[in-house]
What we know:
- It is a single chain.
- By secondary structure, the protein is an alpha/beta fold.
- It has one domain (40-281): Protocatechuate 4,5-dioxygenase, Chain B, CATH 3.40.830.10.
- It has eleven helices and eleven strands.
- Strands 7-4-8-3-9-2-11-10 form an eight-stranded mixed beta sheet, with helices on both faces. It has a three-stranded mixed beta sheet with strand order 1-5-6, with helices on one face.
- A hairpin with a 2-residue loop joins strand 5 (95-98) and strand 6.
- Helix 7 packs across helix 10 and helix 8 runs antiparallel to helix 9.
- The protein starts with a strand and ends with a strand.
Amino acid sequence: MNKRVRYPAVAEEFYPSDAGELNAMLTDLFHNAHQRPGMNTPRALIVPHAAYRYSGTVSADAFKSIEGRSFRTVILLGNAHSYLFEGITIDLHESWHSPFGTVPVDHAMGSRLIDLDPGLFHKLDIAHHCDHVLEVQLPFLQHSLKPGFSILPVLFGRNKPDVCRRAADYLLSVMTTEDLVVASTDLSHYPSYLDARSIDRTTLDHMVKMDIDGLEQHEKDVRKRGINGAISTYCSPDAVKTVLEIGRRFGWVAEEISYQNSGDADHDDRSAVVGYGAIAFH
């Protein structure tokens, strides 16, 4: 195996490792995806990162909005789920591989971010090796976009409260209108089906309004209420808040595209679910 290539860590567990099976699954998801007539080309998306059998419908609704489009670089943002570190790590493998083939990493953009603030951005490929948050976006991108795009995988670790504003400042300095931002987060974790729908409704409303203060207060309120099973309102707060910061600076408009939770896929167990939502910014 080529050490300069980042190979799949969760294929078969989260999505089919066979290209034919994966293509059939995504073709079916896209065929049934909700259409958004007249929507402008999104500049950014918020999408989930669970196994496709749970969140694939929501993801397909989002990626359907960029089907057949061309982008230079897709900036992938998420909070690390498998490795602890400080700051923000940028993956600088030569490329990322999926069952559909390889996609190059935008080294120029990644290196520029590190040069701008090496105290904040750094190269730490090991943080990306086993993390599924960004990996599960790659097949959707390959299925929906025209070939020729690069990716820039960016994971947030433990950070100070001002990290999202700082990250947004730096990303704004390297982005162009040819780039797409994809931030990945799941929503509420492990409340009951009905509690999840209530919690997630408020979370998505704040995201669409790009209301960062409201998101933070909502998280505190949910914890204070002690809703059975609920341990968080969303799991990639830094990634989401960074997109919201960028959206506010650009004057983007946000639109909710889709919502479900794992109870919609598994009707036999709705006692502890995870929420999934999709938002487009244009």
